[in-house]
Records
---
Amino acid sequence: MRKNIIFCGGGSGGHVLPAITLIKRIKEIQRDAQVSCIGGHFGIEASLLKDYNYKSISTGKLRRYLSFQNIIDLFKVSLGIAQAYFELFSYKSSETIIISTGGFVTIPVVIAGWLQGKPIVLHEQTTRAGLANRITSLFAKKCLLTFKESLEFFPKEKSIHLGYPLRKEILENVTNQIAAYKGYEHLPLLFLTGGGNGSKLLNDSLEQLIPHLEKEFFIVHQCGKPFYEEIKKQETETYRVYDFINSDMIALLKSSQVTISRAGAGTVCELLALGKPSILIPLKIAQKNEQYHNAVVARNQLGSVVIEEDELDNQVLLAAIKKVQGLPRHKPYSVNPVDKILEEISKI
């Protein structure tokens, strides 16, 4: 693989966590690689990628509806292209590759890199391609896809279905117990997450059910930073609240008897890899209803329960919890796609 490897992606944890997984693996197999990351000033990527030579640029959202904000964001994207061009200029094109993992912040970096003749690879995590990655595909040498269902959105001649880069701990037999759960192992673990940014809908649904659940389960709730201070007040001995869970996430996915989650590609892929049926509540406003299609894959392969937002109520969720408790686990994955992904990147 080339000496200088520059990642761009952000806006949500779903775009950032695959990049971190790839970075860690690159550092294991290519110690002389110089890894850098470019993202937004204030996105979740700014905190998660800060240890990987992180540079921030201006970015804007690409809306497909009339809004005055489009004019402002056009200037932000133009400024971002100039800033990215400056950041990339010192890297020799023959020694550099840009890896885009999605999100609108990638557009300025990809355009600036293309103008300098630097090769670009994108990785698409979802079943339905986001607008940013479909734009990136016009400039990319290769399009590496998690789900075969997304092949229809990309140029066939340069698109390959390889899978999702799993964190290596997913396939390890060891399960580290989270500290808060120690002493309560007699209770089954219920884990609810609305993603890195949280979900008011899921938070409110759980709040209504806490009296029914906290005596039967030990509950871990990733509520999102915007909701944390208020929900934290409701903690009990068997109900623990976190704004964002990082290092304990895999332990929670492995240990939980019931997982309730949005249907972001990363979470769905890790649950698929673990062979764990779950309760998935897709984000209704997700682009092209991508989360619903992600959830359908889990339902087809594992028997996971999919509840659409309009169907969600207390009785439906309680029935889903009971159903998932009775479902068997499937055989976990034995191979991590991460090395296949890096092998394809190294061919450029």
Note: The CA atoms of residues 207 and 231 lie 9 Å apart.
---
Amino acid sequence: MTNSLNVAKFGGTSVGNYSAIKNCARIVINNPNTRIMVVSAASGVTNHLVTLANASLSNDEISDIVEKIRVIEFSILNELKYKQEVEDKLFTLLDNVNALARHEEINFRDDLKDELLSLGERMSSLLVAAVLREMDCNAVNFDIRKTMRTDSVFTAASPDLSEVGRLSQQLIAPIIQDSVIVTQGFVGADENGQTTTLGRGGSDFTAALLAEALSAETCEIWTDVIGVYTTDPRITDKARPLPELSFEEAAEMATFGAKVLHPATIEPALRKNVKVFVGSSKEPENGGTWIVKDCESRPSCRAVTRRRDQVLVTVKTPKMMYAQGFLEKVFSIIAKHKLSVDLITTSEIAISFTLDNPPNTISQKMNQDTLEELSSICEVSVDQDLDVVTVVGNNMHSEAGVSSRIFSAISDFNLRMICFGANVHNLSFVVAENDSDNIVRALHSSLFE
């Protein structure tokens, strides 16, 4: 495959209505190197599908939510010049939504949940491809389940990289010589052909995996903001977009709360040195952020991020003193429940670490199961209502004056835990969620204004 290939991903707000989709279509048509377009579900649809998959609903409540989804999809369909071309397929997908939502086991079987959740992206790609064809672009709606081979861990599947690469070369590479492929983000299939999903935000990951599999030169992530900012612009209006980031900086920012990027996106790009661009589909002329291997500048402080919904778990036992194997037991339990720890500190008889704990999610349930098991081997305490605020940069541990500047900016706040990253790119604080807005503003003011 030619190295000039570009893979472009468009988020839910970018494909939320007919006029927004036309904006995306123009972006694709204006770049002849864009041969693959990865789309999310139309804005609002995934939330409705998540409710249908996880909530105990009456028949009337199900009908009401299915109708809301139908309204979103039909608002796009009815704008099409040749809607009869895709009408029947859309009806079939909506019928599948209705049938799965009423399945008696939908709340208890993750395979059924994934089948239902995939339908948002499948409807979206059908309609987006139709809009492109109306604009004289030879667009093909491609079922990503043919190539995105995953394991069978439903709702959080992991891709089989060698199979994704082999199947992409076999099934996608020949088509993109003459056509633009419009396909689904977030969705995959296991070796038995059962539909899987890559977890929330997995559309970015899909785009990066396809870029890696086809040795693309670039991967564009089109969203509703102009690139990656120095901090969340909803916290302070002084935040500004960054022209460039290194892969390492972007990975740290994504891991510690920058919502513009899915954390897993950076790994495939880094493996094949695929340049990643983040920009706004509403304002493509305003540029965005390039994420590259080698940045022109590597400042000691690049950005401030916040990760919400954290719990701080402390496990303690007198047996830990001079004992071997206790850490191994603790982390084998965490690994068994497929949880990842971001921050950790230790003392002679205790370990404290953070876990993601978004309400009403599978990770919250796994956290509860993990804590119960840990309680069988040690004393466990949990602090809730916490956020992690992180300063991301370069060589932070060795640049003179950086740490003192950071700590003086937030000297008025209580810090529950302080963690210098094992690499040179981050310094993180666990703080009360009620303080995190003000801490981010104070750090941003001191470091970037």
Note: The first strand starts at residue 6 and ends at 10.
